[in-house]
Amino acid sequence: KVSQHDWDFAPRIGLRYDLRAGLQVYGNLSRSVEPPHPWALIWGSTVPYQPIELRNQTATTLELGTRGDSVIGHWDLAWYYAQVRHELLAVEIVAGQPAKESNASPTVHQGVEASLDSVLWEQPGTGKVSLRQAYTFSDFHYRNDDQFGDNRLPGIPMHYYQAELRYDWPSGFYAGVNTQMASKVQVDYANSYHADAYALLGARLGWDSPKQDWQTWLDMRNLTNKRYAAIVTPGYDDRGLDVARSVPGEGFGVYAGISYSFR
């Protein structure tokens, strides 16, 4: 039998101020708590049937942001900074063996999240052209770890960008092209090797009934059949070698669908 008891608290406070119609600023200060998964008490053990003790992951996060509407479109911009203690990290120490979860030394999670929805051109009775964009900057790293210093945490790209350029006809038909870009990703905690950056292209065609009952679409992804690592299982120290531990991304694919809503 395994029994482990713990308690914690997670207070939070948030403020929002409307500068004018369509423009606001906000701020949040919060504490989060994440307990370890019960199975991790056994998976992380090096001795069969002898569980280990793991502490709750806690974080204190400050977030500042603003959102609103302007001539360039509807935008949302936020910055956050989190000091994390006892972060629960999974690491594959032996190739082919399940990753083991354990508490890390203090880490920092900070970044920027931004989005912008813009109407580039619109003509009544003809249609409109719109551009949707989203960008995420993620800087997750150790804070003076004895082994890894201020190394970045693996598995998360520092830069991630998505965009879609779309034309909508008054009849409900639409067509668009989209892209997804990610910077290189560290694959181990020693930062000795990384998965390459990638950029994907896609296209989407569809029709939304003016009555909002019928919908149909054709979605084409990864038009250039780009090879890339979609998921990285973090390792401890790969010593600069390309260990077969990354999950390949989806190649060129075509998806079609149709739906009907009863009202």
Word description of this protein:
The protein has 263 residues and is mainly beta. Helix content is 2%, strand content 56%. It is built from one helix and 17 strands. The strands form four sheets. An eleven-stranded antiparallel sheet has the order 1-2-3-4-7-8-9-10-13-14-17, with no helix packed on it. Strands 5-6 form a two-stranded antiparallel sheet. The chain has a two-stranded antiparallel sheet with strand order 11-12. A hairpin with a 2-residue loop joins strand 3 (57-70) and strand 4. The relative contact order is 0.11. The model has no long low-confidence stretch (mean pLDDT 91).
Supply database-style keywords.
two-stranded antiparallel sheet, single chain, mainly beta, 263 residues, 1 helix, 2% helix
Short description:
By secondary structure, the chain is mostly beta strands. Helices cover 2% and strands 56% of the residues.
Structural class: mainly beta
Low-confidence stretches: none
Strand order, largest beta sheet: 1-2-3-4-7-8-9-10-13-14-17
The SSE order reads EEHEEEEEEEEEEEEEEE
Strand element count: 17
How many strands, which pairing sense, and closed or not: the largest β-sheet? 11 strands, antiparallel
How would the blueprint of this fold be written?
Elements: E1 12-20, E2 23-34, H1 40-43, E3 57-70, E4 73-85, E5 88-91, E6 100-103, E7 107-123, E8 127-142, E9 159-168, E10 173-182, E11 185-186, E12 194-195, E13 198-208, E14 214-221, E15 229-232, E16 246-248, E17 253-260
Antiparallel strand pairs: 1-2, 2-3, 3-4, 4-7, 5-6, 7-8, 8-9, 9-10, 10-13, 11-12, 13-14, 14-17, 15-16
